[in-house]
Amino acid sequence: MPELPEVETVARTLLPHVQGCVITGARLLRDSSLHPLSLRPEDLQGCVITGVGRRGKLLLLELDAAQAVNEGVRGATGLRLAVHLRMTGRLMTHEAHAEPGPHTRCVFALQSAGGEARCLFFDDVRAFGVLLAGTPQTMQRWDFWRELGPEPLELTEAAFSARLDGKNSAIKAVLLDQKVLAGVGNIYADESLFAAGIDPRRKAASLSTAQRGRLLRSLKDVLLLSISQCGSSIRDYRDANGNVGAFQNCFAVYGRGGQACRACGRSLEKCKVAGRATVYCPHCQK
């Protein structure tokens, strides 16, 4: 599943393709790809895409509804289209008359400020992804959105430490909990815990103040490094230009169970934490 760096990369690479474009039409090709709370894609006709951002693992297209064709949508403030890519979701623009592929779940027809027609495809091989278009009030009715924790790149050490207080679950399980932190998944939990020298099985509450600060700094460093390399491409992930990321070439532990630790040369071990495959160095991580 794309994590924070991958979704951030998609947002950055999609922005120049769609910013300022008017949605001139839309077709939903798979009903289950639309969240029950969402407006229908065709209700967004006439909206202008003013920006592309991210919240946790969610991609966000910001919309100006001043000229929306649908009277119930026209003039709505804070309207956005949230896209949860899940495992295999992709958003890419194509020529105006491009035909949807076998895994295209939704198509948006666009017109640029210069009058150029194009289309935006939401493709999703596994069909686990979801679209939700709505106002801030609608978004607050979505449990996943309402319960998202803070962005790790914006957290202070004191605020991060406070979120670990009283947590007796393994620290990796806590990092994966989207209600505690938004956007961290298996890859970046493993990599940041290695960088911080912390055993992923340690109880979160047992970490000292120094360890908590070191972990947050390591997490930020790992996330920012991955963003600078356009994320990690393990299987399906591509950015909005169709390019793969490069951070997988820098993995210290993720997916390297049984191989030599890059720091001490000893064998990396595998275990399960919170039901997720986990790789760590028993010598370097305490």
From TrEMBL:
One of its GO terms (biological process) is base-excision repair. InterPro entries: DNA_glyclase_Znf_dom_DNA_BS, FPG_cat, FPG_Glyclase, FPG_N, H2TH_FPG, Ribosomal_uS13-like_H2TH, Znf_DNA_glyclase/AP_lyase, Znf_FPG/IleRS. It comes from the Bacteria. Residues 2-129 form the Formamidopyrimidine-DNA glycosylase catalytic domain. The keyword DNA damage applies. Its cofactor is Zn(2+). Keywords: DNA damage, DNA repair, DNA-binding, Glycosidase, Hydrolase, Lyase, Metal-binding, Multifunctional enzyme, Zinc, Zinc-finger. It catalyses: Hydrolysis of DNA containing ring-opened 7-methylguanine residues, releasing 2,6-diamino-4-hydroxy-5-(N-methyl)formamidopyrimidine; 2'-deoxyribonucleotide-(2'-deoxyribose 5'-phosphate)-2'-deoxyribonucleotide-DNA = a 3'-end 2'-deoxyribonucleotide-(2,3-dehydro-2,3-deoxyribose 5'-phosphate)-DNA + a 5'-end 5'-phospho-2'-deoxyribonucleoside-DNA + H(+). GO terms for molecular function: 8-oxo-7,8-dihydroguanine DNA N-glycosylase activity; class I DNA-(apurinic or apyrimidinic site) endonuclease activity; damaged DNA binding; zinc ion binding. Its EC number is 3.2.2.23, 4.2.99.18. CDD domains: EcFpg-like_N. Residues 252-286 form the FPG-type domain. Belongs to the FPG family. Monomer. This is Formamidopyrimidine-DNA glycosylase. It comes from Desulfovibrio desulfuricans. The gene is mutM.
